[in-house]
TrEMBL record:
This is Nicotinate phosphoribosyltransferase. One of its GO terms (molecular function) is glycosyltransferase activity. It is an enzyme of class 6 (ligase). The keyword Glycosyltransferase applies. Pfam families: NAPRTase, NAPRTase_N. It catalyses: 5-phospho-alpha-D-ribose 1-diphosphate + nicotinate + ATP + H2O = nicotinate beta-D-ribonucleotide + ADP + phosphate + diphosphate.
Length: 447
C-alpha cells in the first residue's frame, strides 16, 4: 500500500504548524517527551516496543504532490505552509528507552528535539506506534513469563486490523514470542513463520485419515496435525498410524486443555510417539498459560488476547512539550498545570538504580529516577550520579539521521534479549499475575 506516514496524523498538527509559521514561533527549538502517567490497572511494568518501526517510518516521512494538494484543497493549511512542507524532512534528535526495556509511570520513553514545526507533525504517528506496540509487547512478556520457558507463537492476525497484525507480530517477539503465523511480518522482519492446517482442511476431505495423509505427504512427518475436529482419541491414533512414531506434533484447539493434553500425552507415549510435541491454542492469555504450567504442553499459540494487549490495548502514553526556546534564544522549561494532567517542566534524564538482592551476588532494580532541569544543569548531572545508577536513554536519531542499528531483524533479536535481561533485573514480584503496584517506584527530581 502506497501511503505517506506524514498523513498518519491528526489535523490539528498541521493547523498548529500553519498558525506558528504565520506568527513566527514554528522555528523555536523544542523538546517533546512521551510518557505514561500510569500503567494499566494492576500491572507491575510495561515493555517498550515500536521504536524500530518509528525509525522506518521517519525515512518515509515526507509529503507527495498529491498529499500537498489534499492539504491545500481542504484548506487545512495555507499556500505558504504548503511551500514549507514541499521539502520537509525531520532534522532533529530522538533518544529514549531502547526496545525491550521495562518502563514505569513517568518514564521518559521517547524524547524528540527539534523545531516546533517538525516536532508537532510527529505526535500522532509516534504515539500510535508506541502505544500499540508497547501494549502488545507488555502482554507478550506476561504471557512468556507465565509459559515458564515453553515457546509462545503469535496467531492473532485475524483478530485485529491487518496492519496492526504485522506490528503485533514484531512487538510480540520483542516481548519473548518465538514466531508468528503472519507471513508479511515474517517477510518484513525475518521472523520465524509457523502454521500447518485448520479445521476446514480436515472437513474438506472425505475422512480425517485422508486429511492427515494429505498433510503428511505435503509437509512431511515432522508436521503438526490438528486432532480435535471430531474425536481426539481417534484422531491421535490415526495421526500416529499415518505419520508413524516420528510425528512432529499435534495441536489441540478446544476443550479442557490441561486435561486433554495429559490424555493425549499418555496416548502418544503408549503408541510409541514419545517425541511428538503437543501445541495448544484457543483464546489463551497469561492466566490460562499459568494454569497450564503442570500440563504436558510443549508450546502455545496465542491470538486475540495478544493483539489486544490482554485487556490493555493501549499504554495511555502522551506527547508533551517539556522545553522550548524563548525570545532570547534560551531554552525555557514548560509544563501543564491542568487538574490531574500536570506535567514536570524541563527535559529529562532517566536512570535505574540497583541494590543487592540479599545474597551479595545479584543486583536488582530498586527504583526509577527521572531527573528534570535545564539543559545546562542536566549536562552536569551525570558526573554526580551514584555508581549504582544505570542510564536508560540511548540515541536513535541525530540531526535527522537514523542510527540503523536499531532497525531490522537483528534489532528485534537484540530487543528480545534486552527485555529478558531487563525483566530479570526487576524484583520477582514483577512477574506476578496478581494485581499490584509497579514493581519499582519512580522518583522525580527537578534540579
Amino acid at each position: 500500500m502506497d501511503y505517506s506516514p506524514a498523513l498518519m496524523t491528526d489535523m490539528y498538527e498541521y493547523t498548529m504548524l500553519d498558525a506558528t509559521l504565520r506568527d513566527g514561533t514554528a522555528n523555536r527549538k523544542c523538546v517533546f517527551e512521551i510518557f505514561t502517567r500510569h500503567l494499566p490497572e494492576g500491572r507491575r511494568y510495561g515493555v517498550v516496543a515500536g521504536t524500530g518501526r518509528i525509525l522506518d517510518e521517519l525515512e518515509k516521512f515526507h509529503l507527495s504532490d498529491e498529499d500537498l494538494k489534499f492539504l491545500s484543497d481542504r484548506h487545512i493549511v495555507s499556500k505558504e505552509t504548503v511551500r514549507w512542507l514541499e521539502n520537509f524532512r525531520f532534522t532533529g534528535n530522538i533518544r529514549g528507552y531502547r526496545e525491550g526495556e521495562c518502563f514505569f509511570p513517568n518514564s521518559p520513553i521517547l524524547q524528540v528535539e527539534g523545531t516546533f514545526g517538525e516536532c508537532t507533525l510527529l505526535e500522532t504517528l509516534l504515539l500510535s506506534i508506541l502505544n500499540y506496540d508497547s501494549a502488545v509487547a507488555s502482554a507478550a512478556s506476561r504471557m512468556t513469563s507465565a509459559a515458564n520457558g515453553r515457546p509462545c507463537f503469535d496467531m492473532g492476525g485475524r483478530r485485529t486490523n491487518e496492519w496492526a497484525a504485522v506490528a503485533a507480530a514484531r512487538a510480540a517477539v520483542i516481548g519473548g514470542f518465538q514466531g508468528t503465523a503472519n507471513l508479511l511480518a515474517a517477510q518484513l522482519y525475518d521472523l520465524k513463520a509457523i502454521g500447518t492446517a485448520a479445521h476446514c482442511f480436515t472437513l474438506l476431505h472425505d475422512s480425517e485419515r485422508d486429511a492427515f495423509e494429505s498433510q503428511v505427504a505435503a509437509l512431511g512427518r515432522d508436521t503438526t496435525l490438528l486432532v480435535d475436529t471430531y474425536n481426539i482419541e481417534e484422531a491421535v491414533r490415526t495421526a500416529v498410524e499415518v505419520a508413524g512414531p516420528d510425528l512432529g506434533g499435534v495441536r489441540i484447539d478446544s476443550g479442557d486443555l490441561a486435561s486433554l493434553a495429559q490424555r493425549v500425552r499418555n496416548q502418544l507415549d503408549a503408541l510409541g510417539a514419545t517425541g511428538t510435541k503437543i501445541t495448544v491454542t484457543n483464546d489463551l492469555d497469561e492466566y490460562a498459560l499459568a494454569s497450564l504450567q503442570t500440563a504436558p504442553v510443549d508450546s502455545y499459540g496465542v491470538g486475540t488476547k495478544l493483539v489486544t494487549g490482554s485487556g490493555a490495548p493501549t499504554c495511555a502514553m502522551v506527547y508533551k512539550l517539556a522545553e522550548r526556546e524563548g525570545d532570547d534564544g534560551r531554552m525555557v522549561p514548560v509544563a501543564k498545570k491542568s487538574k490531574d494532567k500536570a506535567t514536570v517542566p524541563g527535559r529529562k534524564l532517566a536512570y535505574r538504580s540497583f541494590d543487592g538482592a540479599g545474597d551479595g551476588t545479584v543486583a536488582l532494580a530498586d527504583g526509577e529516577h527521572v531527573v528534570a532541569g535545564s539543559e545546562e544543569k542536566l549536562a552536569a548531572f551525570p558526573a554526580t550520579a551514584p555508581d549504582n545508577w544505570r542510564d536508560l536513554l540511548v540515541e536513535f536519531v541525530r540531526h535527522g539521521e537514523n542510527d540503523s542499528s536499531w532497525q531490522g531483524h537483528d534489532a528485534i533479536v537484540n530487543a528480545q534479549a534486552h527485555h529478558a535481561a531487563s525483566l530479570a533485573e526487576l524484583p520477582v514480584t514483577a512477574q506476578s499475575l496478581m494485581k499490584g503496584d509497579p514493581a519499582i517506584p519512580t522518583d522525580i527530581t527537578v534540579l
